[in-house]
Structures are given as structure tokens and as C-alpha cells.
Amino acid sequence: MSSIDHNWPKYPLEIGGVETVTLGDQEARTRNSKKSIFERKAPPTFPFLIEMRERHYWVTHWTERSVDLFLCGKKPLVEVSNIGKD
Hints:
By secondary structure, the chain is α+β, with helices and mostly antiparallel strands.
């Protein structure tokens, strides 16, 4: 999984955009996280995203869930499709 860097806030609105949020002390402890975190600004434009990694190998993401998991430092859950060659 790629690391989030200073370019992350430039990600497109198609995924909902991203913003930095500062948490209070208690909330940071509850989430077991840092005080500054990244969160999605808005709902994504598209409900799902398909990565066509190869002609017959596709990875489908539920955009909102995948972005939220990624921003929490977790690996997104995806559906992998190997479409048979005709």
C-alpha cells in the first residue's frame, strides 16, 4: 500500500476529496491515532471504481469504503475478476 504524503490532498473529487482533520485528545485516544488525520471531504462521485490492471485482470473497489479504509491505514477490501481469454 502506498504511503500518504503531502500530495494526498490533491486527489480528485471523484473519490470525495481529502482533507486534514485535527482530533481532540480524547478522540485521538479512542481511535488510537494521531491528532491530525486524513478524512474524505464528501461522498465520492462514483459508487465503485474498477482498476484494469491487465486486459483480463480487473480489481473492483466500492469507492467510499476503499478510500476510508486506505485513509485509516488499512488495506481496502476488493473484488478481483479474472476474465477468461476468449
